[in-house]
Amino acid sequence: MASFEETGPRNPVTESIRVDKVHPRARFLDNARAIFVLILALIGLIPVLAMGLTAFKSRADVVAVPPKIAFEPTLEGFVFLLTERSQLSGTKLEEAKANADDLGLFGQIALRNGQRINGPSDYVTRLWNSLIIAGGSTIISVVLGLFAAYAFSRFDIPGKDDLLFFILSTRMLPAVVVTIPLFLMFRQLGLFDTHLGMILLYTVFNLSLTVWLLKGFIDEIPREYEEAALVDGYTRFQAFYKIVLPQAATGIAATTVFSLIFAWNEYAFALMLTSNNARTAPPAIATMLGRGGIEWSAIAAGTLTFLIPVVIITFALRRHLLRGVTFGAIRQ
Amino acid sequence: MSDVTLKHITKRFRDVTALRDVSFEIADGEFFVLLGQTGAGKTTTLRVIAGLEQHDEGQLLFDGELVDNLTPADRDVAFVFQQYSLYPTMSVYDNLAFPLRSPMRKTPEAEIRQRVQSAAETLRINHLLDRKTAHLSGGEMQRVSIGRAIVREPRIYLMDEPLSNLDAKLREALRVELQHLQKTQGSTTLFVTHDQVEALTMADRIGVLDQGQLVQVGSPDDIYDRPATTFVAQLVGTPGINLLPANRQNGSLIVKDSSIQLPKQSGSDNVPADFILGVRPEDVQPSPNGNFAGEVRLIEPLGVETILHIKSGQQSLLSIVTGMASWTIGEPVRFNIAGDRVHYFANDGKRVS
Fold first, then answer.
1. A223 and A156: one domain?
2. Is residue A28 included in any domain, yes or no?
3. What CA–CA distance (Å, rounded) separates B329 from A115?
């Protein structure tokens, strides 16, 4: 009989971390699968790509049919997006052109369209609002969710299952159903169009998600670690801080990203419950219209700048998003 | 080091009574082993002493002081867990230093370094100090986990089957080391195991737990030679003790459904008419002129000794003989029973003497 080393395992091994053990057919399947997923991803990315290109197109190029793939990139869209301008004419325009050298990059681009920059646009404020509201509500809901999840995971709480279901049930109502009551309540309480109101609202919505997600992650951390810390001379809070928190980092990162994405992208409530002071970017982009036609490049530029923070955070936390960082020192 | 006293400890989990009126004392510097099967309540006892579980009834005293209401941190005990429980995000050094860095101890960093070094040397793990715990073997992990207990001077060491996840060779080696460590440090240790060999070899005294109740406390000799119940008798000794239903007629002891009949023994006066006769396999010895007749049913050669399964009438007996024996299955055999070393149990399992 031929030895195992020469012929390999009799049945194809399709899943293994050892490359030399995997049957060639399985390796081919793996590659085929990877290519298939890559193609799907590319198809999914086409709109994003189109948006990215549009953001750098000039007014003329945006509406060209067929769409131009090769074009001269311009920051026009960003200028429209981020600045408030006024139209110049006659002698004022000549005057401005003469002093063009004193203008910054944005100013020169505006001048090419015969415009003068008067100051930053509302969109800058909207983006700032989005950051404060999404960031604030994410931090609060993750911190609260962490404590709640720890308690649900570790302590004997009467009616634990019912409470958990109750928390989840806040997610079962479609947003549209509660907007009108919320609007009335917010107006009564003076929360309408305030940052605090929006932070509270998103925190409430995110809490059910964070509690459930984090409970799952904390459940997987064996109690023995904390018990060892308790015996080693630490209080429960110290044990939580020193032992549980580092091991829950993966879960906290994932929860933070999910929670942030929800709050960052939320549109319907933001449209209904804010007007000017606390309006966030999503409804602002949707209502962005230029003078004399829709400024597609400005909208694309707005969407692009809107995507960037989430991409940066997801990228920064990507290592934690991969599971299995901390397995090992407990033998099952 | 301290002495520890448990007084009438009862612990319930909802409807299940895990510990029922457990009382025993561990003297200062004593190596006390709790022996019992899975689910007997051994680990619960440890956790109650450590303060990880609160007992429902009874009192727990360290050095005569009540510690019932103290937190685990304030009880100042060291716990070695079965699953090692090394902190995975820390290096071996940090794991060992962790108890000393506790805010309630505030050990200076220089002293921590010195204590960690000396503990690491004792356990021969100084070359591992910089490693992450996930990259250690099982034996190394358990050493680190024991190291985390010995870096400070706790009032008592609590060890929850620390050797049971190791392979046989390593277990023996670490067993000897642990014993050496305990004797040189004179530390009070409560060691939990289901392995009778560990219990008999390591213990100063053994407590046998069965279904949450303490059945017997005594030295290894007591437990082996004077088991309080058939349960204890079966728990210690390999191969297990022979338990034969028997009755007493005119002083002589007759094993039912067999030809075995022992003459009146010195200790057998109080034995009831119907009882259980316990005979250790080493007390059943084949001999050409033996008093009893039987038949060899199975042979298990172990090298140093051989286990013979002998059938006599309807009863089966185990016998252990030294060396490799040259029996064949089905062969008739004559054997003797050391009548002065047999055990008598009432039918409810209690020892009669």
1. yes
2. yes
3. 110
Q: Domain check: are A132 and A252 in the same one?
A: yes
A290 touches chain B (CB under 8 A): no
Q: Are residues A187 and A234 in the same domain?
A: yes
User: What is the spatial distance between Cα B85 and Cα B92, in angstroms, rounded to a whole number?
Assistant: 12
Range of the domain at A277: 124-321
The CA distance from A219 to B22, in Å, is 32
B86 contacts on A by Cβ (under 8 Å):
329
Cα gap A213→A206, rounded to integer Å: 11
Task: Walk me through the domains of chain B, giving residue ranges and CATH numbers.
Answer: 4-231 (3.40.50.300), 242-345 (2.40.50.140)
Number of domains in chain A: 3
Nearest chain A alpha carbon to B105: A233
**Residues A181, A287 within the same domain:** yes
A302 located within any domain: yes
Domain match, A174 and A261 both: yes
Q: What is the ipTM of this complex?
A: 0.84
Of B50, B79, B134, the CB nearest to A329: B134
What percentage of chain A has pLDDT greater than the value 70? 89
Residue A218 and residue A167 in one domain: yes
Chain-wide mean pLDDT for chain A? 85
- Judged by a CB distance cut-off of 8 A, whether residue A26 touches chain B is no
Across the interface, of B98, B104, B133, the residue whose CB is closest to A328 is B133
Distance from CA of B176 to the nearest CA of A (A): 23
**Contact assessment for residue A281 and residue A303, using Cβ atoms and an 8 Å cutoff:** no
Domain containing residue A226: CATH number = 1.10.3720.10
- A229 contacts in chain B (CB < 8 Å): 87, 98
Query: What is the pLDDT at residue A11?
Result: 61
Better pLDDT: A145 or B185: A145
User: Would you call A324 an interface residue with chain B, using a CB distance cutoff of 8 Å?
Assistant: no
A 183-222 residues inside an 8 A Cβ radius of B: 222
Q: Is residue A61 part of a domain?
A: no
Among B47, B86, B87, B135, the residue to mutate for chain A (most A Cβ within 10 A):
B87
A327 belongs to a structural domain: no
Say whether both A128 and A222 belong to one domain: yes
Residues in chain B closer than 8 A to A329 (CB atoms): 84-88, 133-134, 136, 141
The model's pLDDT over B302-340, given as tens digits with 9 standing for 90+, comes to 889 999 999 998 999 999 999 887 888 999 999 999 988
Q: Which residues of B fall within a CB distance of 8 Å from A230?
A: 51-52, 71-73
The pLDDT tens digits for B46-72 are 999 999 999 999 999 999 999 999 999
Q: Are residues A169 and A248 in the same domain?
A: yes
- As a whole-number percent, the residues of chain B with pLDDT over 90 amount to 67
Residue type, B115: R
